Structures are given as structure tokens and as C-alpha cells.
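Query protein
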Amino acid sequence: MLLRLYGWLTWLAQPLLRRKLARRAVAEPGYGAHVPERFGHYTPPPSSGWVWVHAVSLGETRAAAVLVAALRERLPGMRLLLTHGTATGRAEGARLLREGDLQAWQPWDTPGATGRFVAQFQPRVGILMETEIWPWLIESCRRAGVPLVLANARLSEKSLQGAQRVPLLPPAYASLAAAYAQTEDDAARLRSAGAPVAGVFGNLKFDATPDAAQLARGRQWRAAAGTPVVLFASSREGEEAALLTLLQADPAAAVAVQWLIVPRHPQRFDAVAELVRAHGFAVARRSGWGDAPPAGAGAVWLGDSLGEMALYYGLADMALLGGSFEPLGGQNLIEAAACGCPVLMGPHTFNFAEAAELAGQAGAALRVDGLAQAVQTVLRLAADPAARQQASDASLAFAAAHRGAAARTAAAIAALLDLGLRP
């Protein structure tokens, strides 16, 4: 009864979704493309046999990339169906496609849209990345006999409490064929939510290899910068303003290092540029750099490009972890570690609690209680090249020590298919 009521509510909300997509398409045209797919309507004739991976946004798609590569080794001739919920995720996912693969939008969570999606593609298996639990999507797969797994699965304590308050979610978790958790703590919370945890495999993002050309270029630019470069990586709304206010009040801190801000969401690039100017600083945007960052002190650099995080981490001597200085749970620090870029993280890292704790223990990350302390720590490290090098070496060692999740997850999925749960 609750599931049917939920289905009616999501069906009634479809006009709101269409309006939201139209609004977002103004700034990000990708949201205006292939809109009928959101509602389970497709142009090609129905097909079958797909290995379906759902990666909602950019971070999940990057994690999916290493899993897809491992699956191709395990399942020669695999036909990949890749679905997304955001324009940045879909743009990143396009790089993973080979001849014969397909991309589509995640269907809106109504009985009709999800039922049409499953009938259209008839997947051999569905792989939901990290946290993607949608009651009607899971129910439609259950009815069609499509085994679903939650890969690279994580669940914070806050999210567990939310799931336990929503009666629809425990049955959805329980309908999964398997959940492969990142950590033992995630596994315990997932079991409490009702999920059939079948393994604790680690975080797929440790297996991602940074773009070597970008990393080398960034390091070359860093060597030529003449002053330590500090990256605010994947900054979130409110964090940039707080940092800029501190720098405005302390002009010496503003020029002691080269500040580089890379916002988490591309639709905020222009707003952050205006924010920098409003605090009295010149701004030099990556889109205008040409072959190298601008010389001279005083301007705040703004990373307004997609797909270049390896370049930014290579360019940086250290990074502030976006999302950790507001109660947002923190962004992923694993890519920074793989690039040898030590991280200063704020008090809010509940989205990646174990990775943050392990990075701190390894010397790859340093906890600070807020941006004011972060700025003071930056100034101390800027004057201590040996400490920065030690932290960089620790970051690389930390990343190397935690690889292997992709192979373990791919092996488990291949074994699931071998069981004959779906021909």
C-alpha cells in the first residue's frame, strides 16, 4: 500500500520534475537533452543482455569507471548500459562507452517509467553505485527478475536513521541481491537498514589512476609558480565566502600562498568568480589561462573546468577538503591522495568517515577545526617544504595501500551471474 501511494506521489510530481529540468538546462544544457528517457520512453527497439551500471553523478561515475574496466576483464564482450541522474555524470560517463554500449537517464521513480526502463533493456544485472536506493526502480527489477547489487556501498549514521524512519526503504534494501560495502562500519549500518551485505571490499576510488598527463602538467606548473599553491578542492556554497572573508581580513595570508578554488558544482563557477571580486580580489579563471597559469601575485585562481582534478591536485602543494567546513559530510579525499596532494580537512567528514580517519592516521590528511585554523596551518606548512614533502609521500603510500576493491567487486558480480540468477 505504501509503495503504491509513493508511486502515485512521484507520478503526480512529474510536471515539477519537467520544470526543474527546464530551469537547470538554462545553465547546463545537458539537462535539456533526451528528456523522454527520464520517463521511460526510448527511440531504439527493446533489447536485452545489458550489464547495467547506475552512477548518479560525477563522483559515482568516476568510481564506476574503475569497476567497468574490471568488469570488462571478467566479462569479455560485455555490453554496458550506463545511467545517470546529473548532466556532469552523463558527460563524464560518455568517456567510458565502447562500440555497442549505451547511455540513458535514470528513469523517474514511478511504476510506469521504471517498468518501461526494465522492459526496454532487460539487464542481466543492475549495479547501483554507492547510495542509490529507489523503491520503484528496485521493485520493477524484482518483478522482472533482474538481480540488483549496491556496489561501493556506503551509509552514514545520519542516512541510516533517515532510512529507518521511512517504511519504504528497508524493504527496498532487502530486495537487493547483494550489497558490497566500503567499510565494516558501512556494512553494519547497511545490515541495520535491511541490506544483504555480501562483502566488505573497500572503496573503488582507491583504484582510480590519475590522468598522468594532467598530473605531470600540474606539477610542472607548480614548480614554476614560485610560491606554494593551496587548492580548495570541490568547495561548496558558503565555504568560499568564509575563506575569502578570512583572507580579506588578513592580506598577508592572501599573498603568502597562491590560492586556487575549484567549486564542486560547475553551475556555480560564475557565482564564485563574482564572490572573489566582491571580496576585493582579482580572479584568474582556468578557462583563460592558456598554456600556463598567470604569473604574479594577488589574483585568486578559479578552476572553472571539468575533468581536470588531477591537474589541479598536481598543481597544488596542499588542499582544503571541500564540504568538510560546512555540515555537508566532506568530499572524497582519495583522488587527492592518489595524486600525492596532502589534505587539510574540516570537522565534517561523515560521508567518508573511515577514509578520513585512515588518511589522518597515515599522515596523508590533517584535521583542523575550521577555516581559520586551516589558513594558519597553510601558512605554517608553506614555510616548511620538508613537512609538505613528507605529507605528500604519506599520501601516495596511503592510496597505494588501499587498492583492490575493483577486482573484488567485479569477481563478486561475475560469480553472481554464474549462479544463473538471470540468463
Remarks:
- The mean pLDDT is 93.
- The longest helix spans residues 58-74.
- The chain has two domains: 21-202+404-418, 212-401.
